[in-house]
């Protein structure tokens, strides 16, 4: 699942390099001795704007589709088909049938996919076979461009409701917003989901304008390099926040609610040192350096990381055994603790998150 985020960030980095090159290219064109080349400056501006918007939207759509599919594959690998959420099973059934009706299998985006593949996968699902395979194009299908509500619908069909509202409360989004607005991050939490709505809808509007009517010769609606960077910064933060919401849902379902995660209670003291250190009661299980730790706030998984350091009576130790005589311990982790949160630890690292 992490590979979907890494691939999106690679696309964003390419676009950042493209944006940084624009000013230098324009200066060279403006100073060129050939009048015909100088006259191409506005053409270049219009085409650069077109290329930027199309590439940015394409990267976002691919990321949303890939992230939704990665989470679905994870769910299907851990559950019988009949145990998947009702919305996912209904969408899979309806859109698998739609794939067959459209008669476009083997073409375009469906290259390599045959009607036989779709039918066999659907039959395995409905007949209770295990293992089974879902039809990807049925799962990630959306009829419209990725406006805010469409993104919500894609993940809502997987059982994750109001994902943009949840993403708006992720620290990455809050930090991005506060940096872009020049305000203290502690003053807003979470940001309004309308911030996400407006930015996603603006990108779709621009993409549709270009696709259906062209960029036009009037450059007043195009973006300068600063405005392009603003959109790159937003989508970089938005993608990370969506990813964190998905991981939060995964940890909550398969570790917190299942009982595989072991509660070590609420902090006795702290947080200290910028939020990275707390004091906890003697845990009911073995605690060790490098151990996965999960923070739950307000009934949902808030963040996760690893224990970096353990101290008992101001002395660093590698671990604490459940039969030791310590009464409390100091923990330093690579996450930010907050007051009132409940802490959980895992006995082993999950490769989905920690590799």
From TrEMBL:
InterPro entries: HEPN_RiboL-PSP. It holds the Pfam family HEPN_RiboL-PSP. It comes from the Bacteria. Residues 42-247 form the RiboL-PSP-HEPN domain. This is RiboL-PSP-HEPN domain-containing protein. It comes from Desulfomonile tiedjei (strain ATCC 49306 / DSM 6799 / DCB-1). The lineage of its organism: Bacteria, Pseudomonadati, Thermodesulfobacteriota, Desulfomonilia, Desulfomonilales.
């Amino acid at each position: 699942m992490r590979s979907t985020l890494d691939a999106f960030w690679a696309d964003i980095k390419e676009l950042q390099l493209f944006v940084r090159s624009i000013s230098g290219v324009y200066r060279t064109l403006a100073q060129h001795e050939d009048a015909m080349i100088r006259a191409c400056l506005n053409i270049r501006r219009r085409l650069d704007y077109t290329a930027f918007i199309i590439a940015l939207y394409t990267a976002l759509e691919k990321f949303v589709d890939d992230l939704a599919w990665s989470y679905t594959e994870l769910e299907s690998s851990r559950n019988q088909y009949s145990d998947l959420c009702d919305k996912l099973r209904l969408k899979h059934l309806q859109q698998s049938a739609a794939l067959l009706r459209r008669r476009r299998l083997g073409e375009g985006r469906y290259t390599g996919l045959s009607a036989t593949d779709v039918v066999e996968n659907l039959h395995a699902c409905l007949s209770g076979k295990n293992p089974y395979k879902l039809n990807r194009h049925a799962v990630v299908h959306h009829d419209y461009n990725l406006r805010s509500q469409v993104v919500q619908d894609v993940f809502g069909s997987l059982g994750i409701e109001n994902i943009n509202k949840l993403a708006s409360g992720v620290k990455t989004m809050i930090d991005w917003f506060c940096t872009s607005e020049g305000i203290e991050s502690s003053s807003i939490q979470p940001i309004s989901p309308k911030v996400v709505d407006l930015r996603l809808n603006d990108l779709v509007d621009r993409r549709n304008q270009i696709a259906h009517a062209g960029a036009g010769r009037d450059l007043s609606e195009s973006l300068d390099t600063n405005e392009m960077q603003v959109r790159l910064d937003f989508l970089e933060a938005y993608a990370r926040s969506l990813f964190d919401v998905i991981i939060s849902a995964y940890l909550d379902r398969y570790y917190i609610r299942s009982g595989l995660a072991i509660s070590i209670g609420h902090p006795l003291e702290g947080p200290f040192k910028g939020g990275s250190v707390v004091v906890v009661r003697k845990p009911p299980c073995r605690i060790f350096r490098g151990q996965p730790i999960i923070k739950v706030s307000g009934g949902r998984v808030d963040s996760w990381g690893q224990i970096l350091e353990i101290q008992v009576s101001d002395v660093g130790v590698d671990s604490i055994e459940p039969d030791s005589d310590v009464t409390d311990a100091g923990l330093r982790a690579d996450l930010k603790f907050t007051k009132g949160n409940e802490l959980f630890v895992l006995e082993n690292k999950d490769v989905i998150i920690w590799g």
